[in-house]
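U., I forgot to send this yesterday:
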Amino acid sequence: MFVDFKNDPPPPPWQPPRRTPRLSQRQEEVLGGIIGFNLLLLLLAPIGGATLISALVALFR
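Result:
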C-alpha cells in the first residue's frame, strides 16, 4: 500500500529506551520483605479465612 508522506514531517530518529535506575540496597531489602510478606499471606490468609468462616458457622448453630 502506498502512503503519501509529502505533507507530514518525517518521524523522529529512533532513540534507545531509557534505562531504569537500579534500586539501592535498602530498597531491595524492603521490596524483598514486602514480597515475602505477601507470599506468606498468600498461604496463610485462606486458612485464616476458612477458620473465621467455620467459627461463624459454629457460632450460629
